[in-house]
Amino acid sequence: SLHRRADATRKCHLIFSEMRVAVTFVAAAVASSSRAAETANPIRRVVSLLQSMQVKIEAEGEKQDKLFAKFQCYCESNTAKLADSITDAKAKIDSLGTDIESSTQDRTQTVADLAAAKENRESSNKAIADATAQRNKDNAAFESTSTDLKTNIAALDKAIPAIENNMEAFMQTGTSALLQAVRSARDVSEYDRTTVQSFLQARGQSAEGYTPQSGEIVGILKQMQDTMKADLKEATTKEAEALADFNELVASQNKAIQAATDSIEEKTEQSGSLAVQIVQLKNEKSDVAEQLEADTGYSEQLGKDCEQQTKDYAAVKQTRADELLAIADTVKILNDDDVLDLFKKALPASSLLQVQTTQKEVAAQALAALKGAHSKRPGLDLIALALHGKKMSFDKVIKMIDEMKDALHKEQKDDDSKKEYCNKEFDETEDKMKDLKHTKEGLDQKIGNLHDEIKETKESIASLEQGIKDLDKAVAEATEQRKEEHEEYVSSTAENQAAVDLLGFAKNRLQKFYNPKQYKAAPKRELSEEEKMYAAYGGDIGTTPAPE
Q1: Distance between CA atoms of 277 and 269, rounded to whole angstroms?
Q2: Diameter of the chain by CA atoms?
Q3: CA 112/CA 106 separation, integer angstroms
Q4: What values do phi and psi take at 188, rounded to 5?
Q5: Could you tell me the end-to-end alpha-carbon distance of the chain, in angstroms, rounded to an integer?
Q6: Angle at CA 208, nearest 5°, toward 206 and 214?
Q7: Chain-centre distance for alpha carbon 88
Q8: 103-112, 245-254, 371-380 — which is least confidently predicted?
Q9: Residue 100, Cβ neighbours under 10 Å: how many?
Q10: Which of 302, 299, 306 is nearest to 6 (CA)?
Q11: How far apart are CA 296 and CA 75, in angstroms?
């Protein structure tokens, strides 16, 4: 657009220059011919017209210089702004690159910390599970040992006073529990153990054959009793300490699990935020890079346009300078004293013949000047037609030329006004186009960002939906597993209870033989009429369950 405008300006200037010269010479020639009889030197009018044209050309040149100065200011200011924008964009890209690298490193570290926290939580859970299993195992051992010791101590507590107070009554009671206590006693010499066992096994002999040795036996039994009580106390103390250590370990590991869980939640949120931040920084960097590319391209194009316009205007200035130089040289030549004298001699007091000859020559010169103007104006055609006529009235021709000059002056003013208006409109249109271009680029950028956000949101929704599905599936699996565990527990409990009942029944049956006093007879079962009839015909109605 700048090139086209410069070419149009230069062509218009050349055309108007040719027209001005043509009309000026025609006017000068006609005027000099028509007033030859009244003026001693008609060249003066030609010089005046040339000087007037020179002033007008200089005034137009000043206007064009001002407009070009504004254009140069526009080029310089926009070039500086674009240079600053390019520099800022490059610095912004470097800064964003550093931020992206830093955020990426932070996210990598956060992911590593998250994995470490998960590992720590798993380790703490495993430690609690292992400690719980060991605690259950130790507690079961303690319960077994404690039960045995308590049973043995109870047997000793019962046997020692009986031996001391009523030996004959003791000999009539069962000694199986005491024998078990003697067998399980530790820190007892084999001699003492054998002595006590022999003593207990001899309880069935008659009183006459019994050798009194109860004092020694009581001493051994008391020693056993003291040892068992000490062992029970020690085992109880260790169990309490082990339980306290277990509770402390569980509390410590629970704190570690809670800390790891809090860290996992924090690191998960931080990792997500850093991921979003990295995407935003990359999008911003891409936008700045696109803007930098656009500004760089526009800056290069602006530089080329400004350079070309400068060259074009230099050509216009050179053409105007050449025109002014030609006019100045012509005025100088015509103003020379020798030239004036020559014209005075060449144009003496005019006779009719001389005037007629001068008129023909002037008419020929005027026609040549009009043909050289290359204009299609009807007024010039009328002037040329009048100059072709045999009976030519220069008064009419001069009037037509004056009217033509006035019309040209008016058109020149209109053209100048339109030129300024067009230049202003061109500048405003270019500014609007640039603003619209930048606005469009900004909207395209926002649209791209919105598309990216929509895509990310859809991906997040899909991820959440998949997570919900996975969670529902996990809950269903956990529920099914819990049902199976519950059924297994119920079945196992029933089986254990049945086994306990069976053992109780077996124990009661053994008590009937080994320890009849502790035997509990089964309660009599009241048979129904149907059961009595069934039993009468030889049917088995089942065994009465052992007493509780």
Answers
A1: 12
A2: 207
A3: 10
A4: -125, 135
A5: 115
A6: 85
A7: 22
A8: 371-380
A9: 18
A10: 306
A11: 15
Prediction pTM value: 0.40
Taken as a whole, the chain contains a residue count of: 548
The predicted structure's pLDDT at residue 102? 92
Give yes or no for a contact between 162 and 170, defined as CB atoms under 8 angstroms apart. Answer: yes
- Separation between Cα atoms, residue 464 and residue 483, nearest integer Å: 28
Question: Cα(297)–Cα(290) distance, rounded to whole angstroms?
Answer: 11
pLDDT for the residue numbered 40: 41
The amino acid at 338:
D
d(C-alpha 524, C-alpha 544), whole Å: 8
Share of the chain above pLDDT 70, in %: 66
C-alpha span between 93 and 81 (Å, rounded): 18
Locate tokens 């997040």: which residue?
460
Q: Which amino acid is at 234?
A: E
DSSP per position, 380-443:
HHHHHHHHHSSS--HHHHHHHHHHHHHHHHHHHHHHHHHHHHHHHHHHHHHHHHHHHHHHHHHH
Asked if residue 94 has pLDDT above 90, the reply is yes
Question: For residue 538, is it left (φ>0), alpha (ψ between -120 and 50) or beta?
Answer: left
Cα–Cα distances in angstroms (integers) from residue 2 to residues 44, 64, 283, 309, 505, in the given order: 42, 15, 36, 7, 117
Is the separation of the CB atoms in 9 and 61 below 8 Å?
no
Q: Identify the residue whose tokens are 């380790």.
A: 123
Q: How far apart are CA 92 and CA 82, in angstroms?
A: 15
Sign of the four-CA dihedral 322, 327, 330, 336: negative
At residue 129, the pLDDT reads 92
Q: Residue 142 corresponds to which tokens in the numbers above?
A: 């303690």
HEC-encoded secondary structure of 352-372: HHHHHHHHHHHHHHHHHHHHH
Amino acid in the structure at residue 532: K
pLDDT of residue 125: 92
Confidence tier at 93 by pLDDT (50, 70, 90): very high
**How far, in whole angstroms, is CA 489 from its chain's centroid?**
51
DSSP, res 209: T
Lowest mean pLDDT of 29-38, 94-103, 492-501, name the range. Answer: 29-38
- For residue 217, give both structure tokens: 């036996």
CA dihedral 112, 117, 119, 121 (to 10 degrees): -170
Instruction: Give the E-state strand segments of 179-296 in sequence order.
Output: none
For tokens 């250590």, the residue is 245
